[in-house]
Design a protein that fits this description.
The complex is a heterodimer of chains A (about 110) and B (about 475). Chain A has four helices and two strands; from the N terminus they run ααααββ. With about 110 residues, chain A is mainly α. Chain A has a domain of about 50 residues: Histone, subunit A (Orthogonal Bundle), CATH 1.10.20.60. Chain A starts with a helix and ends in a 7-residue tail after the last strand. In chain A, about 20% of the residues are buried. With about 475 residues, chain B is α/β, with parallel strands linked by helices. Chain B has a domain of about 250 residues: Amidase signature (AS) enzymes (Alpha-Beta Complex). In chain B, helix 2 runs antiparallel to helix 3. The longest helix of chain B has 24 residues. The two termini of chain B are about 15 Å apart. The chains are: A mainly alpha (about 110), B alpha/beta (about 475). At the A-B interface, helix 1, helix 2 and helix 3 of A face helix 9, helix 10, helix 11, helix 12 and helix 13 of B.
């Protein structure tokens, strides 16, 4: 099984290009240095190639699994309960003003 | 034997008979930590003052005759569980100074049970890793050999128990993060059924896979810890309304007449020969105890690593979106505007492995790729779960190796993420299927490194899991050793 897991199909098509890595980094709100872009492109390619193994399985008509156990909607009574309070809620804020979290400017 | 070397049930007797006090046990534990933690680095944060306060309180309770099974017992917590007033870092720079305003449910339950919290243990950053090398706070070493990794991601919690720096600890297991380090550190580690233990206050990694469980010195202690943490919690809507038996009643019960499945897919080329022979010996022992071992097939086993490394990073990329430098966590001051601040805070706050997994997950969930990766993996996950449902129709339990190899060298797999992912090849399926699993020591390599055997049972059958693990532990002719540090 381990030997099998290490088997990576010969595939000349890149699973992900450097440009796509840049796009994904933006979606994930990450800045990558040039060397990180190179490294992640190569590593993500290896990992995504490895995932090709899943295409060996015929999944026609198979329900995707969302949870390991059968879950039911967890309804509860709509009652007011005590919350943690403003001081504690703001206690870990990197920056705050008055009763609010403060952030850098949002619009030009 | 020193007090810190004993088990929960041994200490409980001593406390009850007034042969010792919680303060004395706590002193022994801190003495040990002070002697060896420079070398092992199990802990990120110690809670010494609080611990002695709790120990004194516990001693009063015991004197009043009120003590329960965990009253006065020093416990370590993986630094992924929120502790009110004590920083919870998750092994990350981004949470380096995070002080939770509330206790996680497991912490609250252990607190109510009278446990003494001694500290927060080191872990791979955001539990992403199999070696405890990706922590922002440095590497944890294996107490059996300081050149080796302790396993991960709950490596600090495993090392602390193995080195007698605490009596028991809690970890979390998303793809093997309790069972793999338990195996590599020569102790007992259990991942309960998904939904058995509340995840409220557990820093989220992959929400459909994460589960909290105990590390202990023997199986009876595992049952005691599980008794304390299991059960429904209105704060976690995935925790399950189900009766919780007294798990200690399953300790020392016979497994005569049981059918134990040996999945052939777990015994293929690539396993370390010493691990293989130790696990084969365990199969013979289980047969000696009156169980019938039969070969079974879990045909989708070869896909489990691929399924996992689509699903876990996808869920992680979503869960870790909350670290934006606004409400808590590290914020970079260099950002010119909000977007810039998000990006700079996250880039400086997360380590390499976390970034890599966020990238995999973001890509897998992004427009045009969702069906190819996430949906496909979730479909194969359904088939994998059916393999187990099928197997448990005819088997009481399944026996496998816990890990393909014993503990490897520090640094050995750090440059090859895929090699690191394959360390979890035997533990991942249990999380994907949501079933409980336990790793129990089953021998040593010639070099003196511990080896673990894993038992698996059906959903919510932790009782049977304790039963077979305990039967094996008590009846197998096994040499018992302590970590050499």
């Amino acid at each position: 099984m381990i030997a099998e897991c290490l088997y990576i199909e010969e595939d000349t098509v890149l699973k992900i290009t450097k440009e796509e890595v840049e796009h994904v980094a933006h979606l994930a709100r990450l800045n990558l240095r040039e060397d990180e872009k190179e490294k992640f492109t190569s590593q993500l390619n290896d990992i995504l190639l490895y995932m090709e193994i899943l295409n060996k399985v015929d999944t026609t008509g198979v329900e995707p699994m969302t949870h390991a156990i059968t879950l039911h909607n967890a309804f509860r009574e709509d009652v007011t309960k005590e919350s943690i309070g403003r001081d504690l809620a703001l206690g870990n804020a990197p920056d705050e003003m008055g009763d609010c979290f403060r952030v850098p400017k949002i619009i030009e | 034997m020193e007090l810190n070397q004993l088990t929960i049930h041994e200490l409980q007797k001593k406390l009850k008979n007034s042969e010792t006090t919680s303060v004395e046990i706590t002193e022994a534990v801190f003495k040990r930590i002070e002697a060896v933690d420079d070398k092992i680095h199990s802990f990120v944060t110690l809670m010494k003052d609080e611990a002695f306060e709790e120990a004194r309180e516990a001693d009063k309770e015991i004197q009043r005759g009120n003590g329960g099974p965990l009253t006065g017992i020093p416990i370590a917590l993986k630094d992924i569980m929120c502790t009110k007033g004590t920083r919870t870092t998750c092994g990350s720079h981004i949470l380096e100074n995070f002080i939770p305003p509330y206790d996680s449910t497991v912490v609250k339950r252990l607190r109510d049970a009278g446990a003494v919290f001694i500290g927060k243990t080191n872990m791979d950053e955001f539990a992403m890793g199999s070696s405890t090398e990706t922590s922002y706070f440095g590497v944890t070493k294996n107490p059996w050999d300081l050149e080796k990794i302790p396993g991960g991601s709950s490596g600090g919690s495993a090392a602390a128990v193995a080195a007698d720096q605490c009596i028991a600890s809690l970890g979390s297991d998303t793809g093997g993060s309790i069972r793999q380090p338990a195996a590599l550190c020569g102790i007992v580690g259990m991942k309960p059924t998904y939904g058995r233990v509340s995840r409220f206050g557990l820093v989220a990694f992959a929400s459909s896979l994460d589960q909290i469980g105990p590390f202990t010195k023997d199986v009876e202690d595992c049952a005691i810890m599980l008794n304390a943490i299991a059960g429904y919690d209105p704060n976690d809507s995935t925790s399950v309304h189900a009766d919780i038996p007294d798990y200690t009643e399953y300790v020392s019960k016979s497994i005569e007449g049981w059918t134990v499945g040996i999945p052939k897919e777990y015994f293929i080329e690539g396993i370390d020969p010493e691990v293989l022979s130790a696990v084969e010996a365990a199969i013979k022992e289980v047969e000696h105890m009156g169980a019938q071992c039969k070969e079974i097939s879990l045909p989708h086993s070869e896909y489990c690593v691929a399924i996992y490394y689509v699903i876990a990073p996808s869920e992680a990329s979503s869960n870790l979106a909350r670290y934006d430098g606004v409400r808590y966590g590290f914020r970079s001051d260099a950002g010119r505007d909000l977007m810039d601040m998000y990006k700079m805070s996250r880039s400086a706050g997360f380590g390499d492995e976390v970034k890599r997994r966020i990238m995999i997950g973001t890509h897998a969930l992004s427009s045009g790729y969702y069906d190819a990766y996430y949906k496909k993996a979730s479909q194969v996950r359904t088939l994998l779960r059916k393999d187990f449902d099928e197997a448990f129709r005819t088997c009481d339990a399944i026996l496998t190796p816990s890990t393909p190899t014993p503990a490897f060298n520090i640094g050995e797999k750090m440059d090859d993420p895929l090699q690191m992912y394959l360390c979890d090849v035997f533990t991942i399926s249990c999380n994907l299927a949501g079933i409980p699993g336990i790793s129990v020591p089953c021998g040593y390599t010639e070099a003196g490194l511990p080896i673990g055997v894993q038992f698996l049972t059906g959903h919510f059958e932790e009782g049977k899991l304790i039963q077979i693990a305990s039967a094996y532990e008590k009846n197998a002719t096994l040499e018992r050793r302590r970590a050499t540090i």
